Amino acid sequence: MMRLIASCVWIIVVTSASAYVSSTWRSRVADSEIPVKRVGYLERKKTMPINVPMIANGNVEGYIVAQFIYLADTKYLQELSVPPDDFITDEAFRELYTGEVDFNHLQKYDLQGLTKVLAQKINQRLGREIIKDVLVEEFTYVPKRDISR
After folding, report:
1. d(CA 135, CA 139)
2. pTM beyond 0.70, yes or no
3. Average pLDDT value for the chain
4. What is the CA radius of gyration of the chain?
5. Are 19 and 42 in contact (CB under 8 A)?
6. Contact at 8 Å (CB) between 103 and 59?
7. N or C: lower Cβ tally within 10 Å for the chain?
């Protein structure tokens, strides 16, 4: 019986000591890291998906479904009365609707050019450089024949 009690006490001591050492070791590692100076903070936001009809020869051929993520400066975001999501959705719709899209080779679409143009146009409309980068979350073409009724 004495061995059982001694072994239980030993297990408790070893477990407590290892937990203490691991927690203090991690805090010393974090303290030794060089602090990073940040000039501004970026906030990550996701827009709602948009559906852009693709029209060719007067007929709807299908839809582009797109969703974007944008990185914005938090200092200027708080000053806006309207969220940038509305501007991103509007500019993306305009670019995709008026752009030349090859329905058979949609994978060839210049997404990098699209995101750069979106960031530039949105910042122009907002009057300052709030949007730092626009990323593509989803970009899909759905032909009209694949849409269920």
Report:
1. 11
2. no
3. 81
4. 27
5. no
6. no
7. C
